[in-house]
DNA sequence: CGCCATATTGAAATTCATCAAATGCGGTGG
DNA sequence: CCACCGCATTTGATGAATTTCAATATGGCG
């Protein structure tokens, strides 16, 4: 875990979500680590013992098969937390998608954080199970629609959505190839449901249609 | 939630796993509810406020799309716990697969169960995320192999595995149709990897091959 | 022993992946 | 500021895997 810890990081002025509940934010200020695009935050098999809050940037959590196939189980945007796991070691990889600042909360043996962690773990569990429905039972266009709706909601419901991740990341999150993801974007564009402002930002023209597609 | 609570249930003498940690089992004995095959334990939208331990039988947790497509996110066998969720209401359905006895632990507002629940939630989270890899990135035969390996492990690694659920349940768990599940079973049989003793029990002839397929 | 639901098998259709080529965006340097 | 370069993305053609539709077989239970 090669972190570029810095004390003079300029934090993003526009966090997508409020910070953690006051109970977590109180006490001594936690250090912020900076990770360049593509760098590893932790690896599968590594010792766990901390959890993380994204200050700015975006993080992908994933797992690999022996032959290199990758499944991204979650993206984490500014304000969101990740990294708490069962057992002493990480079961997944965490990487910065682009330049990312992360606040690290070390779990020291003494303090009991169950109260804070349980709601986060339960929320993560619900998200993962909902994602199972998408991967198990929805077709390509429904998957992309569900993904876009989710991103809209996590970015405050604005018409314009930023996609910090590549098409490959989106594919590996949705269980599709990049070609299929690209074709679906084109189809949604042709239907007048979305508009591609540039590769990384989408304008939602028909939120209701998208909503219905993603169920 | 139509439970047939009974005080004279004969518990299965062979729980697949030990009961909950002593911290949960201590205190007043929790009531056991009996659910016939196919009956609902709780429904999506229903008020939460308890968690459950399977005493005997098996439970499926699932979610539905508007058009009836179903994704089973988890099966729970004897000894396993389920039902804790984020928020005040259930996001999923829980049904008894066959005649099932469930020990109900009500969460009363006073007592704090974070310590007991957090490890369970984290374990569930890990399981769900691993299942995401299966649904997102593995083909039909790999999915069935992963499923069988999981069932073997949860039943103590014996050569003979009991499958309490139907092919339809397995399909809805693996994101496949019943026909595909059936064909894969046949293929595994023809390859000499498994032997179908009857519809609900499988003998594992080549555990290593299965293990490798399921990654 | 026979019935009926569940499961298996078969053939055709569909969706998505793969392989391949072209486009274009974003960043760099002149 | 503009042109160029490299890489991500898009688009196209083909193929493979899985679904769908349909028929048959099986076996669990009365």
TrEMBL record, chains A, B:
The keyword Transport does not apply. Transmembrane segments: none annotated. Residues 138-208 form the HTH crp-type domain. InterPro entries: cNMP-bd_dom, cNMP-bd_dom_sf, HTH_CRP, RmlC-like_jellyroll, Tscrpt_reg_HTH_Crp-type_CS, WH-like_DNA-bd_sf, WH_DNA-bd_sf. Residues 35-83 form the Cyclic nucleotide-binding domain. This is Helix-turn-helix domain-containing protein. Gene3D superfamilies: Jelly Rolls, Winged helix-like DNA-binding domain superfamily/Winged helix DNA-binding domain. Keywords: DNA-binding, Transcription, Transcription regulation.
